[in-house]
Every structure is written in C-alpha cells, then in structure tokens.
Write a structure and sequence with these properties.
Blueprint: H1 6-21, H2 27-46, H3 50-69, H4 73-110, H5 128-143, H6 153-161, H7 163-166, H8 174-181, H9 189-222, H10 229-260, H11 278-284, H12 287-298, H13 308-326, H14 330-348, H15 368-389, H16 393-403, H17 421-437, H18 453-470
Helix pairs in contact: 1-2, 2-6, 3-4, 3-5, 3-6, 4-5, 6-8, 9-10, 9-17, 9-18, 10-15, 10-16, 12-13, 13-14, 14-15
Length: 483
C-alpha cells in the first residue's frame, strides 16, 4: 500500500476514526489497533513476508529479556550475538546473497575459471533494512545497559512494525518511541492539523516534484549516449531533486500521519541542499540513518579519539557500509567512497563542525560566501548521485565522460511527455523558494498562529491544485522501498 494511493486515502481515515473514537479507552487498545493496521498495511505488499517481520519481532523481544535477566556475561553474550547474527543473516540472505555470489563468480571468470552461481529467486522483503535496524539498536542498547528490556509484547511489536515508518523509516530508537507507546495518547487538534500540513507537503514533493523529475531522469540515465553534456548535467540535478523529494516526501507523510495518532517520529531531513559543506549535508540528510551509524558503528570503532588515521579509517568504514546498506551494487559502494573522500578535507582540517547553525539565519538572502558554499556543496552531492542512480559502474563512467565532453557548453534540449522541462523548472524554483523561507521550521508548511486563516487556506488550495494539475497519477513506489 503506497502513501500516494487511493487505498491509503481510504485506509488512513478509517484507522484514524477507529483509533480516536472506538479504541481510545486505554493505550493497550490503541496499540493493538495500530498493530493490526500495521500488519495489514505490510501484508498489502506481500503477506508471506509478514511472518518474517513477526519472527524478527519475537526474536529481538525475547533476546532483550534474556539479555537483561541473564546472570552471567556468557549468557548475555549468547543471546546478544544470537539476535545480531540471525537479524544480519536474514538481511544478508535476502539483500546481499546474489550480489556476493555474482561478484565471486565474476572474479573467478576473470582468472579463467568458469563459474555459474546458484542465485536466489526471491524478491527483497520491503522495509527489511529499516525494521532490522530498529531491532538491532534495541538489542544493542539493552546489552550496553542503556535501556531496560520491554516486557509488554504489544508495545514492543508496535515499536518495530508501526506502519508510518515500517517500510522506509525513519529508523527509530527505543529510547524515543517506546516511552510514547507506553502512554495513552490524547487527541491534540493543533498537532493533528500540523500533521495534515506535513502530509500535504510530502505529497506535493512526491507526486509533483519527484515523480515528474523521474520522467526526465529515466530518459537521460537510460540513454546517456544520446544526450549532450549539458542535458546530462540537467539529468543529475533533476535526480538530486527526485531522490530528495521522493525520500523526504515519504518522511514528511510518515511524520504527518504519525502526528495524527499523537506520536512524534524522529526528524529525517533538515533542508540538506542548503548545506555549506559535505559534513553539514550529512547532518541534514537521512538523519536517522546517519546517527545510527554514528552511534552503533563509528563510536564503537573508536570515533575520533584514536588519532587522525583512526578517524580517517572510521570515516571510510561508515560511508562504505552506508553505501552498501543502500543496495547490493558496486555503484552504492563507490557512492559511499566518494562521499568519504568529499568529507575528508573538513575532517582533516577540523572544520566539520563549523556550520551548525541555520544558513543565513534571520536573513532573507544568504551572503555571497554562503551562496558559493551551497552551490559547491550541491554540485559535489549531484556528482555523487550519478553513481547512486546509475545501473552499474560502466553506465556511471560513460555518463560522466559524456557529461564533461565539449557538449557540456551547449544549450540543453530535452522534452518530456507529461510536464515540460520549462514548467518543471518553474515548479522546482518555487519549491526551492518555499523550502528556503521555511528552512528554520520542522517542515516548509509549518505555520505559526500569526498568519491569517484565509492566507493559510489560499496556500493549501494552491498546493492541492498543483497536485491535481501536475501530479503524476500513475502509482509509483518510493525510491527507498528498494533499500
């Protein structure tokens, strides 16, 4: 079930009404309803993988209790590693087995040994990377004695399977979400209205910006040899907006939907394309994943405490692992490596914490220095996105070679079958301006009480009409469902 589908438009109001008017007596009845809704939501993708989700939930729930109750360190380690290895084992089999099998076969073939690997013919369970990381962080936190084990199976099941975040995050922490699930929620009108605003903005990002950009991006990336260098630059820029609006659009809808049920989820994006360096970009992009790798990989490896070479090693490890987390393809690993290289100057010269404030805070326009910094950072990020989007490394290299040819300096000529590139460019410009004016807020449609009601209504109507006029009506999955 997609957020941008008629099925979800029917599903959400029904669950909302049942939640607040029928199952509102206790937090247990609220949680039970959300679990049933979440399992139904997930089974709409493929009901068979629902059993994998339930098994993973029970494994981590039971392991957490055993880790806490075990009197000896040996038993604690046993349950800890049992949970870790089984979770990573499932992730490895479904997501990475074919990649490693093919890569090993290719290696053997290059040295003259014929290899025909046996591959798994199964689809990737949607959301497996996200709910696996939910469980891993929970078990690790119990083992490290940062939190207590959860003994209420309903509460823990909802923590893992809560439908707004189930298939594409954000990657929640038990310390943030579980306390909310253990309390009865009271309806908050202001919170619900703001949730609807965020849902509206997320839908606009997805169906108007991301899905229209996807049309251009697919044309260009599928046949880069047919286009000039200037068009390829345009394709890379459009993909940057596609992936941002697709994924942050999903996160906006997820956070907005959750706010309708009185539950706050972790913020996942903080206007990353207004970053002034790569380090700031990664503090603002996919925040829940970046912080997960920081807390559960970078810091345990020694973080920044072991000297410069240890710091550099750890940076490369987390970026390569982050790339690999995104998909079983060498393009993602190279993308992670490129970002590690891009962030390295700020790490070496200790400037990675320079830009912690909001760019041009309190001002309408950025300074010339900030404008140059944002432009350079965005350009570097776009270059990295070429590898992220490319089908394979050869495709990425061909794309870059053609992009930096003499045709780079020609006027780009490209047509789209749905929304013209000119109209899309205008929509992108208006989108960027709206994000810029809202960069100090949690989301671009967050509005304070001083704005007259009629102006709010006009703004909502304009965005709604933009969705109706320029929104892509074909149901398209969110990009991060594949990860």
């Amino acid at each position: 079930m997609l957020f941008n589908s008629l099925a979800f438009a029917i599903f959400l109001p029904i669950i909302f009404l049942l939640y607040w008017f029928v199952f509102n007596k206790t937090k247990n009845t609220q949680n039970a309803l959300l679990i049933v809704a979440s399992y139904y939501f997930y089974s709409c993708w493929d009901w068979r993988f629902l059993f994998l989700l339930i098994f993973s939930t029970f494994l981590d729930y039971y392991s957490g209790i055993q880790i806490e109750k075990s009197g000896s360190e040996r038993r604690r380690k046993f349950w800890f590693w049992l949970s870790i290895l089984i979770n990573l084992g499932f992730l490895g089999i479904f997501k990475y087995y074919n990649f490693f099998a093919n890569s090993f076969a290719d290696l053997l073939n290059t040295i003259g040994l014929e290899a025909n690997p046996t591959l798994l013919k199964v689809i990737l369970p949607v959301g497996i990377s996200f709910y696996t990381f939910h469980g891993l962080s929970y078990v690790i936190d119990i083992y490290k004695k940062r939190i207590k084990a959860e003994y209420n199976f309903i509460d823990y099941s909802l923590f893992v399977s809560y439908f707004p975040l189930l298939v594409a995050g954000p990657i929640e922490r038990a310390t943030h979400l579980l306390p909310q699930l253990k309390e009865k929620r009271q309806f908050d009108y202001e919170k619900a209205v703001d949730g609807l605003r965020q849902i509206l903005w997320g839908l606009f990002k997805k169906v108007v910006i991301a899905d229209n950009c996807a049309i251009v991006v697919n044309m260009v990336f599928n046949n880069p040899e047919h286009y000039s260098g200037s068009v390829l630059v345009l394709g890379a820029v459009f993909f940057a907006f596609q992936i941002y609006c697709d994924f942050s659009g999903y996160s906006d809808i997820a956070l907005g939907v959750s706010r309708l049920f009185g539950i706050e989820l972790l913020r996942n994006f903080n206007y990353p394309y207004f970053s002034r360096d790569i380090a700031e970009f990664w503090r603002r992009w996919h925040i829940s994943l970046s912080s997960w790798f920081r807390d559960y990989l970078y810091i345990p490896l020694g973080g920044s405490k072991g000297g410069m070479w240890i710091k550099i090693r750890n940076i490369f490890i987390i970026f390569i692992v982050s790339g690999f987390w995104h998909g079983a393809n060498w393009t993602f690993i190279v993308w992670g490596l490129i970002n590690a290289l891009l962030i390295m100057p700020s790490v070496i010269f200790s400037t990675n914490r320079n830009n912690l404030n909001i760019v041009a805070e309190g001002k309408l326009f950025p300074s010339l220095k900030e404008l140059v910094q944002m432009t350079v950072t965005f350009s570097l990020v776009c270059f990295g996105w070429i590898f992220f989007r490319a089908q394979d490394l050869n495709n990425a290299i061909c794309y870059i070679k053609k992009m930096f040819s003499k045709s780079l300096f020609t006027i780009p000529k490209l047509s789209s079958s749905l929304v013209s590139v000119k109209v899309l460019s205008i929509l992108l410009l208006l989108f960027v301006l709206k994000e810029w004016t809202g960069r100090s807020k949690k989301h671009a449609l967050e509005i304070n009480g001083s704005v007259p009601t009629y102006l709010k209504m006009v703004l909502y109507f304009i965005i709604f009409m933009a969705i109706m006029i320029w929104g892509v009506t074909t149901k398209t999955e969110f990009i991060y469902f594949a990860f």
